[in-house]
Design a protein that fits this description.
By secondary structure, the chain is α+β, with helices and mostly antiparallel strands. It contains ten helices and 27 strands.
Length: about 525
């Protein structure tokens, strides 16, 4: 076959290009066949950043000490009327949202109680057999089987058992409870076996923002671990006279009651006792009994089965800035005595209404709550020095503390309260915005009218109140009131302290001098 020279040249170039392309493809193909790998790509993204601390080591060491608590009780038949009376909510207003809030927060409702309280439908069971009514959490505090939980978990129980981290169920005996702090101690017989246990931390060193780990039995899911931080300290949620809760944001739910909250050293900083939750589930607001409170109470329960606290026998109220000003105090610290109970240790020692308790045994008293905790920490019979602010100066009285009664007693002032309708002609205290008249028994002035635009109205004074003293001076006439106001103004005071009696109880109100 004859090919022209130019055509031959072009054909040759095409053949050479084709061979080169095949050679390249063959090489790549041979490489893929030889190595069995894909073409080399760019490196995957990897960020070298500081890593969050792991809680795994803490959890591994403390988990064997945490248990699930099961409670049973002998249930008596009840009427299935569908009411809330058995839960103590029969007197609440007919407001579904309000009722739901109280059920969820204080521990009632379909799923049972606060955290771990689980109420089963036990109506019409009349055989007296133990039925499950609650489940919560707890933790060992000794190798011989003492463990801590909440009082509200065990309060209705007659039979108790615990389930350990490895699934063993053991019978437990109730050693003692303390409703005021919501603590209880159980004892497990390990048959000679030693239990892993944990210790209480020094919670005075706990700081807001510290990492914490909660371990417990939420919704019956034993061995559940959650983590968070300390959100706040010194919370008062109205649960009792010793409120001083640690607030955490670790997820805490029903069933966590009585469970421990740990620091990163595996020590218990607090015990889960309450949550705030409109929905019934965790919203990141949980409250712990501080370790310092729990440690003292638990020691007493293990030793005596109960807690005996010192008792001062006085009713107290906070010292506001206005009250401090009216009494000449430099700060609004301390606890104002509204009344000293008849027969109580305080009254016997000379403490009177109007005194401000500022120190106990040389330690400053910041608030009524702190005073209650300080006095409660002493044993009955203990002699303590109580410093009071009285008539513009400090005085110290020695008080032999009594035993705190099982139920708080309220002071009664039958001779100057619940006054019948007065017959005397009312007088006007224009500077205070009050209309008053003499009490029938001659002790104090009964308020008959209050100017709605006055400071007295703003501070809650209302008709029927009995004014018994101003700045610790008895008042039985309007002249007594005027003199007390004048004396306060001469002393440079901007307010006076008025003692009010209402419904058998006393309280103090600070009113500005010379203002209506």
């Amino acid at each position: 076959m004859n090919i022209a020279p130019n055509s031959y040249s072009r054909t040759r170039k095409r053949l050479m290009a084709a061979v080169a392309s095949l050679a390249v493809v063959g090489t790549v193909g041979a490489g893929m066949l030889a190595t069995g790998t894909a073409p080399v790509l760019a490196d995957a993204v990897r960020v070298e950043a500081p890593q969050m601390p792991s809680f795994a080591d803490v959890v591994e060491h403390v988990s064997p000490a945490v248990v699930s608590v099961k409670v049973k009780a002998k249930i008596q038949p009840t009427a299935d009327d569908g009411s809330d009376d058995q839960n103590g909510f029969d007197n609440l207003p007919d407001n579904p949202q309000l009722r739901r809030f109280f059920k969820e927060f204080r521990g009632f409702g379909d799923q049972g109680g606060q955290f771990g309280m689980r109420r089963f439908n036990h109506r019409n069971h009349g055989n007296g057999e133990p039925r499950p009514i609650a489940q919560g959490s707890g933790f060992f505090i000794s190798e011989d089987g003492y463990l801590v939980t909440n009082n509200h978990v065990v309060s209705e129980g007659s039979d108790f058992s615990v389930v350990t981290n490895d699934g063993k169920e053991l019978d437990a005996k109730l050693i003692g409870t303390d409703p005021r702090t919501d603590l209880a101690v159980l004892k497990v017989d390990g048959g000679g076996n030693k239990f892993t246990y944990v210790d209480f931390a020094d919670d005075s060193k706990v700081r807001i923002g510290d990492w914490v780990v909660a371990v417990g039995n939420p919704f019956g899911l034993g061995g559940t671990v959650t983590a968070g931080i300390v959100s706040a300290r010194g919370r008062d949620i109205g649960a009792g006279p010793y409120d001083d809760f640690i607030q955490i944001d670790a997820s805490v739910n029903r069933g966590n009651s009585g469970g421990p909250t740990f620091n990163l050293n595996g020590q218990v900083i607090g015990i889960n006792t309450a949550i705030f939750s409109p929905s019934g589930g965790s919203v990141g607001i949980a409250f712990d009994i501080p370790a310092s409170t729990a440690k003292q109470v638990v020691e007493d329960l293990m030793k005596n089965g109960s807690v005996q606290r010192g008792w001062l026998g006085v009713e107290i109220q906070p010292v506001t800035k206005d009250i401090a000003e009216s009494l000449g105090l430099k700060s609004d610290k301390g606890a104002l005595v509204s009344s000293a109970q008849d027969g109580g240790p305080g009254k016997k020692a000379g403490i009177v209404a109007g005194d401000v308790i500022t120190q106990v045994d040389g330690k400053d008293v910041a608030s009524p709550k702190e005073l209650a905790r300080m006095i409660g920490a002493f044993a009955p019979g203990k002699s303590v020095d109580v410093t009071v602010w009285r008539n513009g100066k400090d005085e110290t009285v020695k008080v032999d503390l009594g035993t705190l009664p099982a139920s708080d007693k309220q002071a009664s002032n039958d001779d100057n309260s619940k006054q019948s309708a007065p017959a005397a002609k009312p007088d006007t205290l224009a500077d205070l915005g009050l209309t008053v008249t003499k009490a029938e028994n001659g002790k104090g002035l009964v308020v008959t009218d209050v100017d709605p635009d006055s400071d007295a109205a703003d501070r809650g004074i209302q008709p029927g109140d009995v004014i018994t003293s101003i700045n610790s001076n008895e008042v039985n006439t309007t002249d007594d009131v005027s003199k007390a106001m004048t004396d306060a103004a001469k002393a440079g005071r901007k307010a006076v302290l008025m003692q009010i009696t209402r419904d058998d109880s006393n309280r103090f109100v600070a009113l500005p001098v010379g203002k209506g």
